[in-house]
Amino acid sequence: xxxxxxxxxxxxxxxxxxxxxxxxxxxxxxxxxxxxxxxxxxxxxxxxxxxxxxxxxxxxxxxxxxxxxxxxxxxxxxxxxxxxxxxxxxxxxxxxxxxxxxxxxxxxxxxxxxxxxxxxxxxxxxxxxxxxxxxxxxxxxxxx
Length: 144
What we know:
Elements: E1 2-4, E2 8-17, E3 31-40, E4 43-53, H1 54-67, E5 74-76, E6 83-90, E7 93-100, E8 114-118, H2 122-137
Antiparallel strand pairs: 1-2, 2-3, 3-4, 5-6, 6-7, 7-8
Helix pairs in contact: 1-2
């Protein structure tokens, strides 16, 4: 998932399961490691940590798809708490806020974390949703 504005580029990638050998096991063994790469002006930050359960990654893709045509503000906050997403509808797209907390907080951000603002058009939001959906499919167990 890649987001850009004039000064900022944010990439979120799913790297794999936290414990690959137990991904087929109990509910909470399906945590995904997310890599965050942030470039702001001349600053760069990278972190990779467990941040989404597999089901939450599916939900994020669906939530993004919904935001392409939403008429009311909405938020998506995964249970791990290191990421949060907020969307406010705009004509032809949305205002998307991505909040980075805890392990994903860049060193130049204050203790409250970083809040990054993007304004993707409708097609861009649908492309984001599709990219998340595609990334998630790589981790769906065979036969599910």
